[in-house]
């Protein structure tokens, strides 16, 4: 059996010397190396920014969505959207474990797991697309995938429906980072607070900011705002277009009596929202960009352009314990669980 | 006289509702609004990532570089490279000050200043390109520019040559952020430590990390490494290709006895160096991406893909006092000053 590198560089076809994530093409042959895990895939959870782009390109046509997805995997050996660069994650059953991992992993053949590394670096083979659920970004397939030695995963819990766990784990990094960043008394704005990761961030932020803090939810639709309001996830609700920096600035100024936010969390799934995020942050405050539609240069030059001394964080999808933290929210909050079961499970 | 918005939104032609930086086209008519400053421009300092791209496109031909630069400004009303999205900065003389700024600004007509906001949002008119200095990314022109009310600037100091001040101010954010991030005893790697911003970061890092720390310089050429070594700016020097993550990982592992870095500062001017930066950072450490060639998704998904719990910062070009901090380095270090005068002044 062939020996593999922990990071999966042995599967990179081109360009040479890079890791599987930035690679243009990786080897998706399903014969495993000695330190790989073979997964029988059940469901893909496509990253929201990626799926939004694919749906637009396909004009909503399901067969066309399937065709685009297959052509991405044919071309790259992984489901990495060439426009957004992003992936998503998957759930499936452990089918084979490389002998070099014996004693190193807790996994057993037959375990149901979710991979917590992006599909944008995961070798994937799609044999058949069974069902596309465009509203929740989930796609059931027949197919196989490979988890590298350095790849992280979560065994699916017994007490939560699979699809619910999948949709929560997809964005697990966001609430876990929120938990680290919010201090009591903080004013926190979640741009895209009406979305999947946004709602988890709102809940976590409200818990941490406490009674002396203020948590503000920004969304663009009456319907989604009403849902979040009913569940009481924020203190203030703003309906506005996140790409309109001037509108967002004025509305947040009003909601904060001109003080602006200590922390802004950006969880939208559309481009051109960097300036809105920067302008509503206090000098010395922090912007946490979780959105995969964030442009590095727009953020860096935008902040400089208006002379804003703010800390801007790139939303690392991983932080220690993120899966456990995110799943626990489904047990902690009946309201969140109800919404997530309705929308995603 | 027309009234302007502090952020310059009154000059945005398209798309509407955005700020001048992300805008595709802004109005570069040199009739000022009541809160604007008109500058008689002397020299443009084109951002390194941008100029590298332009030089490549022009195959090094000076006339072609001029043509590309003029076509960018014709099309956008500002010098924003459509490929890299970045700008640069300029020096010139204050020619007119809008009446609404009276009592609000310390500037007087005739002051020589450097703008510290990016050219990617600065209304600019080029009347003539006088000289292109491709080695230092500087271009002398006849032309005018506008500084918005929120725009930051520095009055040029008397004791430093203009071109020297310009080249230091171009990257002023980098050493100022380094000063904030480095703690005594830290292991710090500067990828691109042989470059302009890189050398300033090395110097600042060595000062802060102190005798118990370790500062590592990575560059790709013998010549540039020899220069940095002679000036004793780092403790360890590594020659390697920053796009080859595996090579960088192995060399830094060796240099740090497997401990890796507390802080990695990325100041290269080429794409695809995110993974190198992430892999050589300790769990719990920080990556500071100053390079404008950084891809947001490659960084976010790359860290997740290898399960690295690192804080990743978007290099905000501005932080309080950055101009003063950077210029002071030219007075503090004879070595740095000598190199900078040789290379850039
Ligand atoms: N590793 C990572 O960092 C990582 C991992 C997973 C996902 N992500 C990214 O996180 C982002 C959010 O993912 P998600 O699953 O939470 O997406 P989602 O459920 O689709 O939520 C998107 C949010 O954006 C809001 N939005 C869209 N257009 C808007 C506009 N013009 N103005 C204001 N709000 C607008 C939506 O609000 P309305 O519905 O009210 O319009 C909604 O709240 C995506 O960009 C995704 O790529 C990152
Ligand atoms: N607001 C902001 O955040 C801001 C402001 C200004 C500039 N910047 C960005 O900062 C970056 C650096 O600017 P600068 O003026 O300091 O540029 P510079 O002087 O041209 O330095 C570039 C550095 O990259 C290194 N490099 C290039 N290719 C490499 C490779 N394959 N392997 C290893 N090292 C390599 C060079 O090393 P060798 O010469 O040894 O090859 C050099 O040290 C640029 O991307 C620029 O856009 C950002």
**CATH fold field value of the largest domain in chain A:** Rossmann fold
The total count of strands of chain A amounts to 14
Radius of gyration of chain A: 20 Å
Mean pLDDT of chain A: 95
Lateral strand order in the biggest sheet of chain A: 6-7-3-4-5-8
Strand content of chain A: 15-25%
DSSP helix count of chain A? 11
Could you name the CATH homologous superfamily of the largest domain in chain A? NAD(P)-binding Rossmann-like Domain
Structural class of chain A: alpha/beta
The largest chain-to-chain contact, stated as pair and per-chain residue counts, equals: A-B, 61 and 61 residues
Main beta sheet of chain A: strand number and arrangement? 6 strands, antiparallel
The domain tally of chain A reads 2
Q: What order do the helices and strands of chain A follow?
A: EEEHHEEEEEHHEHEHEHEHEHEHH
Q: Unreliable segments of chain A (pLDDT under 50, ≥5 consecutive)?
A: none
